[in-house]
Amino acid sequence: MPRGGPAVTHLSDEEIKADNKPALGRIVRLLAPYRSQMAAVGGVVVLSAVLSSLVPFLTRATFDDALFVEGGPRMDLLGWLVAGMCVLPILSAMLGIVQNWLTSSIGNSAMADLRSDLFAHLQKMELAFFTTTKTGAIQSRLANDVAGVRTVLTDTMTSILQNSVTVIAALISMLVLSWQLTILTVVLMPLFIWLQNKVGKRRQVLARKTQENLSEMTAITEESLSVSGILLSKVFNRGESEVDRYRRANQLQTKLQVEQAMTGRLFFATVQTFFAITPAIIYLVAGFLIQGRFPGADQGITAGTLVAFTTVQARLQMPLMQLMRVALDVQTSLALFRRIFEYLDLEPAIVDRPGARTISPDELRGDVEFRGVFFRYPEARALTGAPRSDRFADGSGKVEAVSTAQADAWTLSDLDLTIPGGTMAAIVGPSGSGKTTATYLVPRFYDVSQGQVLIDGIDVRDITLASLADCVGMVTQEPYLFHGTIGENIAYAKPGASSEEIVQAARDANIHDRIMSFPEGYDTVTGERGYRLSGGEKQRIAIARVLLKNPRILILDEATSALDNETERLVQEALERATHGRTTLAIAHRLSTIHNADVIFGLVDGRLVEHGTHAELLADENGLYARLYREQFSTRTPQATGEGRDGDLRADVSF
Length: 655
Ligand SMILES: Nc1ncnc2c1ncn2[C@@H]1O[C@H](COP(=O)(O)OP(=O)(O)OP(=O)(O)O)[C@@H](O)[C@H]1O
Fold this sequence. Notes:
Elements (H helix, E strand, L loop, with lengths): L12 H6 L4 H9 L3 H33 L7 H50 L2 H6 L2 H14 L1 H28 L1 H8 L2 H36 L2 H9 L3 H24 L2 H27 L11 H42 L23 E8 L21 H11 L4 E8 L4 E5 L6 H6 L9 E6 L2 E2 L5 H7 E4 L10 H6 L7 H10 L3 H6 L17 H15 L3 E5 L7 H15 L3 E5 L11 E6 L2 E6 L1 H6 L4 H12 L14 H4 L2
Parallel strand pairs: 3-8, 3-9, 6-7, 7-8
Antiparallel strand pairs: 1-2, 1-4, 4-5, 9-10
Helix pairs in contact: 3-4, 3-7, 3-13, 4-6, 4-7, 6-9, 6-13, 7-8, 7-13, 9-11, 9-13, 12-13, 18-20, 20-21
The structure holds adenosine-5'-triphosphate.
């Protein structure tokens, strides 16, 4: 059974900056399917901006033409102007509701697309990706990061559009009212934009750190609060330290969140203050203008112009501040988008070759051949934000040191095996000799480094992955049952299987009677990973599953845990039925199970050291198999040769 692979490597901040791919273009592409709705949003926004920018002119007219005119207020005109000033905001508000509905549906749909794309893409990733990446980290990108960009997709886009239009409309109104006062109002804008950019960069870094930490927290939760994790922590009484580990990550999360929230506060306070004091400065400058001290004074500034101008200027503040805030949010979200795109950009290592053939289980003889196979586990991919291991006192270095040491050695070397269709081959060898690894090459969980694995003379890399999966079945060492009923777990092998087929498979796997003895029969819920069932029951359910699939080639990785005699007999019988009439590649820890194998291959350190039938191999007294056999059936304890110590020969530890 393969263990965790080499550690995921980490990128430095500089490398991340260098890798800042233009994510904005991709976000726009993500929204492309919603073009027409977006155009509608654009129309609504422009319309409402135009409506609201009419208000200051109504204000000016109110002051200059209706209120303060010679001979007293002109009430008829005032009535019309006031009516206009009431109707316009009402219309704008109604348009705002329509726009909210449109943006919310666009944003949520785009986010759902992103989540589905990411999930579908991850499904295509090879096994090695999952053995080298923490499950929690993957889940975190799917849940936390996608949720993190949600606001960008829902609100930000419209906020940018809406506020830009409002700002432009306000600026135009201001220019029409008085260009000199407009210059005064916008003079500090370049400084604000520069400051905003700086704050944005800082926020981006913080956002990435926050997400990394969040993903670490999800990983801890996933590791410690899963059934296996909680068992491990209870057995070794590590509950306290797990809580401690979580608490530390949690504290860091709080610190980062606060820092993120506080970054830019000073900036916003400055901008706000500037806007608050601008009207006072405007009045002062207006005084000078009216006195004719500045150019353009001859145009004259009326009281109405001044009131209208300060109204627009005050109205400019909100959208401008929002634009700056949104720009910051976008920068923050870009960091999250990059994390998502990084996963989307991962090329699955194992894919169909161009022109790959489809094989059909009915036409297959089932010959399996390993020809000069060399194999080494691939290095982990370099990803940003991969959670660092804090389980080692010296950080992640320890893990990486191990992976470098492994890098030179072949896990399998120069392996030649021939298994004719319909026969049974067994692989024996010490623990870690590469038995499971060899079987993984047949369904292409990994690709060979050199050489070929062939089915019916066709290189497995020239067969489509889907048809290969249809032809090869596997009972893994630790059968995986998902949280569902026993019936659903068996039927997973063949969606749409009839209940008769499921029962027949269970009967053949010697588990039907046991299932029927549960009060709820096939509707019994297995519990996560099948924890509510015994080891022997899980194995037989896994066998039933593979029987239902009825593959041409069957790989059996025998469980190492000992079973009582009766269960052992039931499993044995089920296995015999399962292997009947198909090519079987069995990894046997209990040698009693492989007496009848047509050929037995002995592996040591990934090399084939012997092969033959049970009788032939037993005849060579010094051979690996004969030694294993003697150890299992005579003393049942490791011999003093040294080879059998420390569970070195896996065959020993199962007894
Ligand atoms: N995902 C992986 N990444 C890197 N190395 C691995 C991985 N899985 C297994 N290995 C290494 O490859 C070697 C062969 O492992 P494998 O699981 O094939 O042995 P095995 O003979 O099936 O052992 P066992 O009988 O204990 O199940 C071991 O040294 C193991 O540490």
